[in-house]
Amino acid sequence: MQSESGIERDLSRFEGEGGPSAPSGLSSSQPGTERARDVWPAKLVVSVPILRVKNARASTRYFLEVLGFRKDWEDPLEPGTPLLVSVSRDGVTFYLSERREDGPLGGRANVHVTDARALFEELQHHGAKMMSPLDVQSDGSIEFMVRDLDGNVIRFDQIASVTGAPPKPSGRSYRGGSPLLARHRPRRS
3-class SS at 181? Predict the structure, then answer.
């Protein structure tokens, strides 16, 4: 595989690495470890998921009118070329891309929110394509999923507090367990 500078890099040392822990013999001064990274000035700032879409203008309207995002910009402006549109809401940004090189249709993204119940009601009121009702997990986390016009799925979740206490109830009761998983479980005869 070649890097941007044209120098071929041997990535074979990463093949076959498995499991949740780092390979044995990795010390804190080796590249890729936290201590080794402290000497480099570059820091990661933000991640922007790219969602492939068939029609960026229609998808943008859905994100604006239904999901409550705003349009930041679109590129290119030349007619007849695939569009890339940036939409954002409350510090969360998505790129909606007609460009095939940006991946397949049917992507997934996860967005952490402060009040999943209120957002669920807002998006449902505006006609979002809900994939599931609110799902209250055993740790108190709350999540739901929305599908866009092109089959991309966005999961919105509210993480339970550090103490493990469930988020403050909104006066409505919801059942725990994942309805999506329940549909895919084998039925017992």
Answer: helix
> Residue 152: which of 122, 112, 111, 114 has the closest Cα?
111
Q: Is position 22 within any domain?
A: no
Question: Whole-angstrom Cα distance, residue 128 to residue 101?
Answer: 27
Q: Is residue 11 part of a domain?
A: no
Q: Check: CB of residue 77 under 8 Å from CB of residue 156.
A: no
What residue numbers bound the domain in which 126 lies? 50-162
Q: What does the pLDDT look like over 12-71, one tens digit per residue?
A: 777 765 555 545 555 455 556 666 667 788 888 999 999 999 999 999 999 999 999 999
- Whether residue 8 is contained in a domain is answered as no
CATH number, domain of 57, equals 3.10.180.10
Instruction: Please tell me whether residue 6 adopts helix, strand or coil conformation.
Output: coil
Enclosing H/E stretch for 136: strand 135-136
